[in-house]
Amino acid sequence: MQRLAVLAFVFVFFATIASAIPATNTTREALKRKYTTAHSLGDAYTFDPRDGWLSSNASSNPHNQRRSTPAASANSGLADLFRGLLGLGSPEPAVATWYTGNDLKNPSCWANTPWTPTDKSFVCATTLVGWEARPKCFQFVEMCPRNTPTKCTFARVVDSCAGCKTGQSHIDLTKAAFTQMADLNEGIIDIHYRHATDPDDWFEDLWGPKV
C-alpha cells in the first residue's frame, strides 16, 4: 500500500512538471511574437523633439530627464509590453535597406563568433565610414518609416555596412526587421530611428549572443 502511495506521488510530481513545460514554452513564444511584430506609437503621434523625447546622447540618464508627457506615457506602455526594450532619445533621420545571403555571415561586431544571423533575425548593420553619430555595436535601435509611427520595430546593431555610402545615416536590416516597416520590393525607405534600451528577455536567434 505504501509503495502504491509513493508511486502515485511520483506520477503526480512528474505530471505537474510535464504540464508546466508547454506553458513555459507557450509564454516564451508569445513574448517572442511581440518582439518580431511591428508596434505603433499611436496614430496621432508626431516625430517632434518637443514631445518629451530625449537627447540622443547615449550617456545621458533617461530616468532623470524624461518629462511626464503623453509620449512618455506611451513609451512606458511599450516598455511594459516589450519587457525593458524601450526607444529613447530624439528621432533622427536615416535611410534603411535590407540584406541577406552571404552578407549575413561574420558580423563584424564580434572578433570571432560562431553565430550567424538569419533572415528571421532582428539585427542590422550601420555605415562603416563617416557616420560619426551612428549607433554602436550591440546597441538596440527603434525605427519607424519617416512620419509613419504605426509600423515601428527594434533591431540590434551587430555589423557594419561597407557598401553604404560614406557619411550617410544608413541602417541595413535583415529581411524580418525591414518587412515590419515596408515591403521588400521597396528596397530603400526613409526612416526615423532612435537608441533603445536592452530587453529584459533574450532570444539569441533574434539578436545574437549577449556581450
Summed up, what is this model?
The chain has 211 residues and is an alpha/beta fold.
* Low-confidence parts: 4-23, 50-74
Query: Any idea what the shape is?
Result: globular
Order of helices and strands: HHHEEEEEHEH
- Estimate percent helicity: 25-40%
What is the architecture at the second tier of CATH? Beta Barrel
Keywords: Signal
Signal peptide: 1-20
InterPro entries: Expansin_CellWall, RlpA-like_sf
Protein name: DPBB-1 domain-containing protein
Question: What does this 3D model show about the protein?
Answer:
The protein has helices at residues 2-35, 62-65, 70-82, 175-178, 204-207; strands spanning 87-98, 123-127, 140-145, 153-161, 170-173, 189-196. With 211 residues, the protein is of the alpha/beta class. The protein has one domain: Barwin-like endoglucanases (Beta Barrel), CATH 2.40.40.10. The model is unreliable at 4-23 and 50-74 (pLDDT under 50). Keywords: Signal.
Task: Break the fold down into its secondary structure elements and pairings.
Blueprint: H1 2-35, H2 62-65, H3 70-82, E1 87-98, E2 123-127, E3 140-145, E4 153-161, E5 170-173, H4 175-178, E6 189-196, H5 204-207
Parallel strand pairs: 1-5, 2-4
Antiparallel strand pairs: 1-6, 2-5, 3-4, 3-6
InterPro entries: Expansin_CellWall, RlpA-like_sf
Keywords: Signal
Signal peptide: 1-20
Could you list some keywords that capture this structure?
single chain, 211 residues, alpha/beta, Barwin-like endoglucanases, 21% strand, DPBB-1 domain-containing protein, RlpA-like_sf
